[in-house]
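Figure 2 data, in text form.
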Amino acid sequence: MIPDPRPHTLFDRILGELDQALRTTWAANDTARRPSPASAVQAETELSESDRVLSEGLMRVNHTGEIAAQALYRGQALVARDPLQCSRLLAAAAEEQDHLAWCQLRLQELGGHGSYLAPFWYAGSFLIGTLAGLAGDRWSLGFVEETEKQVSEHLDEHLGRLPEPDRKSRAVLAQMRIDEAGHAAQARADGARELPPPVRTLMTRVADLMRFVSFRI
């Protein structure tokens, strides 16, 4: 196929983002570039029903978080001024796509499903990401760093709450924790500005609401 020589207009990019939103929230997320860390777990003790329900809820929260992460990064990338920052945001989004696929696979193994509010989480997160990007590249980087700090804390909490026999979910979250810390470190190295305390508090409250709802729905 001959590549289209025309530069992408803003309208083209918006259409591309709409396509990505539909793929993220409705399509099967089997596009991971890396194999799931759970595949390295050779044997696993069968979970009791109560443990399975807990693991399912926790992994649904993480699956929802990865939907939001896709939207946040892509919203920021859409309006980034610096081409290098745009490229790094999209690279981080690609890693988050791995996480999304891993969480979906693990949810399926647990007999569960993603949040029924996935389109709402995506749309809201994309708007937040776009607003963060419009504030300026260094503020946008600060938003990335703070988001990943809070995600890392959340993952630490879930690693502590997962049933001990659920080694597959634990392997997935452990690798996600490493990747998220890397995103925060990259943003800091690129010149992220520290967000004001009220903004950080608001981010925490919004994330808490998303976790509470998506655990159940």
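Caption note: The first helix runs from residue 10 to 26.
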